[in-house]
Amino acid sequence: MPIEAGPYCPHCVDQDGNLQTFEERLERMSQWIRRSRAGLSRAEAESEALDAMVRMPAWRHHPTLLALRAKQE
Predict the structure, then answer these.
(1) Confidence (pTM)
(2) Comparing C-alpha atoms, which of 21, 22, 46 is closest to residue 32?
(3) Residue 15 domain-assigned (yes or no)
(4) Ramachandran angles phi, psi of 50, nearest 5°
(5) Quick one: CA torsion of 30, 27, 15, 63, rounded to 10 degrees?
(6) Number of domains forming the structure of the chain
(7) 29 and which of 9, 24, 49, 69 could share a cystine (Cβ 3.0–4.6 Å)?
(8) Could you tell me which residues come within 8 angstroms of residue 72 by beta carbon, excluding any fewer than 6 positions away?
């Protein structure tokens, strides 16, 4: 997602431009993935969301993300 204004993409911030919580962003991404790919389980969608977040500057070094990724391995 291109970042046109501010340090984060528009999907990762709230209405005031503050970065969403990690939990909120993970949940919203997982929901979007499930809506766009029928039949995907919640766990599969969450795994895909984590895979995407690892590549995002705002999240890639987040301690919760790193801990969740370590559990998956």
Answers:
(1) 0.83
(2) 46
(3) no
(4) -65, -40
(5) -110
(6) 1
(7) 49
(8) 47, 50
Token pair 């995407």 is found at: 52
Measure the CA angle with vertex 51, ends 43 and 15; round to 5°: 90
Confidence of residue 70 (pLDDT cuts 50, 70, 90): confident
Greatest Cα-to-Cα distance within the chain, rounded to the nearest angstrom: 36
Q: Is residue 1 part of a domain?
A: no
Could you tell me if residue 26 is inside a domain? yes
Whole domain around residue 58: which residue ranges? 22-72
Tokens found for residue 53: 């977040």
Average pLDDT for residues 20-35, to the nearest whole number?
A: 96
